[in-house]
Design brief:
It is built from four helices and seven strands, in the order H-E-H-E-E-H-E-E-H-E-E. The chain is an alpha+beta fold and 198 residues long. The protein has one domain: 2-Layer Sandwich (Heat Shock Protein 90). Strand 4 and strand 5 form a beta hairpin. Helix 2 runs parallel beside helix 3 and helix 3 packs antiparallel against helix 4.
């Protein structure tokens, strides 16, 4: 019964991910609103800490890193990158989350883990649909290879760029660049973003 329940949950996640990708493929018109990525980052980290209390998840996200976009989709960027870090790294290893206004018309967010890093030559391939690591990353339970593809789709829909690389000091680092909100306006509070599901 436990295995059946686990497989049912896994299939539920897969179906939800496929629906998300299908919606992104339809290129719906996003009605952008001001969103403070720092608020979403801290909220997503709180959720990740609750689901993985054995992890040290550090966040450096000063308020004021505002972009224009869909708050629910932008929140999913953080959720998927954090889940990727939790699934593909050893238990107890740390995760670092950073959000910063670069001062060059964009907001930079990074999620770094302290695992074994990315497989050689696979930094671009990991954003493809159904990509699964065969070496260099821990194989986590329940992954279907869609989480990072969803990140890439959302970032692209918001006019941004996403990249992955091995950090010089070890582990993998995912970097997202999004255009900054042109004019300072009140940003959407964290309560508008849905809670991440475990």
């Amino acid at each position: 019964m436990t295995r059946i329940e686990q497989e049912a949950a896994r299939m539920g996640v897969l179906v939800e991910d496929l629906l998300t990708l299908a919606r992104l493929d339809e290129l719906p018109d996003i009605e952008p609103v001001p969103v403070d990525l720092a608020v979403l980052a801290r909220d997503a980290v709180d959720d990740a800490r609750a689901t993985a209390p054995d992890r040290t998840i550090d966040v450096d996200a000063p308020t004021g890193s505002v972009v224009a976009g869909d708050p629910h989709q932008l929140r999913q960027i953080f959720s998927n990158l954090l889940r990727n870090a939790l699934v593909h790294t050893p238990a107890g290893s740390a995760i670092d989350v950073r959000v910063a206004d670069t001062g060059a018309g964009e907001v930079l967010l990074t999620v770094r883990d302290h695992g074994r890093g990315l497989p050689d030559g696979e930094a671009d391939a990991i954003f493809e649909r159904f990509w699964r690591a065969e070496g260099g990353r821990e194989r986590g339970a329940g992954g279907a290879g869609l989480g990072l593809a969803i990140v890439a789709g959302i970032v692209g829909a918001h006019g941004g760029q996403v990249a992955a690389a091995n950090h010089p000091d070890g582990g993998a680092v995912f970097t997202v660049r999004l255009p900054r909100q042109a004019r300072p306006v009140p940003a959407v509070p964290a309560t508008t973003a849905p809670s991440a599901t475990s």
